[in-house]
Amino acid sequence: MKTSSLSGEISEQRGEQFSAARRRLVLPLLCIAVFLDALDTSIVNVALPSIQHDLRLTTLDLPWVAGIYFLLYAGFLLLGGRAADLLGRRRIFMVGSALFGLASFICGLANDAWLLLLARALQGLGAALTLPAAISIITTTFAEGPERNKALSIFSATGASGFSFGLVLGGVLTTFISWHWIFFVNVPFALLILLLVPHVVKESRVMTGARSYDIAGAVTVTAGLLLLGYAITQANQPGATPLMTVGLLVLALVVLAVFILVERRAKEPLIPLRIFRSKNTVSANLASFTLLGPFFSFLFIAALYLQDVLHYSPVLASLALLPGSVLTVLVSRFVTPRLLNALGVKLSSVIGLLCMASGVALLALIGPNSDYLGVILLPMLLVMGLGLGIGYPALAVAAVSGISDAEQGLAAGLQGTALQAGGGLWLAIMAAVVTVSAAAAQGVISGVVPSVSAQLSGFHAGLLVAAAGAVLGAIIALIGIQGRPAEQKEQRSVETFAEDKLSI
């Protein structure tokens, strides 16, 4: 009997040791997913001029290489989180990773614009499944408190480092091999996830009798956003007519209205409309809609300007943008938490958005022979370091302030949707402004390659529109966000929460 008891104790200890060892591998595997998502954002921006040249894309078409990813990501983000809870977090994480890896492989093979855009859309869908599942696996694997906070901080910091690494890797691959390899590089990481996750991550799901996913809601909101973006960009294409543009805009609004009707009648709506009763949440999401759009517009124009006008190589352009990315991490980690505690989320959000607007507007000083330190580096540090480093965590805190614990995840997911949707739509608006202004400056129809001076005129107009968007966000935050919502409850460690929300 003693031998049997001793054997049982040894088996139990070995099981605990295995469980502990397995948990140590869970976080690194999940971090690969957010690393790839962040890397994909920056690595593609650096390669855009090369993609434009090889696939003969117009300035109107080019933003869709990035924008269609963000819009699909935004449209299916909440559905991805819901599916992970009900169908199994590990299962959805693996499905999303497989789809992301397959789509990346297709992107790498693409020699036609339509195939690249289709694969980028599939990448966005894969990310929408993968990222919410990864976060929910962390929250169900690590106990609430210091352990979970540490895990989420590492997860978020990995995203920031992926963005920085993507700038450099994108430049190196595009310069010395081909832009196709910026997508191929994702494939081995996706395979590694699929190989190891079944042996490391335990399956978990919400046990409930009724299952409802609101697929209709995800499809209609995504279709509405895509139609809205297309209506904006096609208005300046050769052959476009006012009637066609108005018709597409009306169709987009009708589809979005259908989405609202679907949400009102759904048993388990993707976005329960009751959450919009919170003025704080509504204002934070509207302000979030204006944050990533100007940021992505800044990256888009900066990459084209450095390579097409100043003739930087892709690797040199990526190194030129790197300081802003590094400063973002430092500001978010060491400055923003203290700023939130000292000034509250309202003023912190306003400061972040105004820094974003100032940096974008200052970049409009670019010319044929701009000085890097004064005209490129300073705006970049304002946009990426201060604007994104302060504004992103501050709005993340504001979006969930005053929300019940049962709906914290919903509020956070809604803010993520607003960020990504704003990024995709703002790119479409900016591209339309750039194209029209460049064509007007040269006195030719849209679609003709403009001269350097006309291209600069387009860049200037696009940057000013993006800056105006960030100013609008600052006004919304100033009027709508409550002063210090961190003090409404029990002063829930704003400092820790802000660090956890850093995921670029």
From TrEMBL:
Record field: transmembrane: 25-48, 60-80, 92-111, 117-139, 151-173, 179-201, 213-232, 244-262, 282-306, 312-335, 347-366, 372-403, 424-445, 457-481
Location relative to the cell: Cell membrane
A molecular function GO annotation: transmembrane transporter activity
UniProt cross-references to InterPro entries, sorted A to Z: MFS (IPR011701), MFS_dom (IPR020846), MFS_trans_sf (IPR036259), Sugar_transporter_CS (IPR005829)
Alphabetical UniProt keywords: Cell membrane, Membrane, Transmembrane, Transmembrane helix, Transport
GO annotations of cellular component type: plasma membrane
Record domain Major facilitator superfamily (MFS) profile: where: 26-485
Membrane topology: Multi-pass membrane protein
PROSITE patterns to which the protein is assigned, alphabetical: MFS, SUGAR_TRANSPORT_1
Protein name: MFS transporter
The species this protein was found in: Ktedonosporobacter rubrisoli
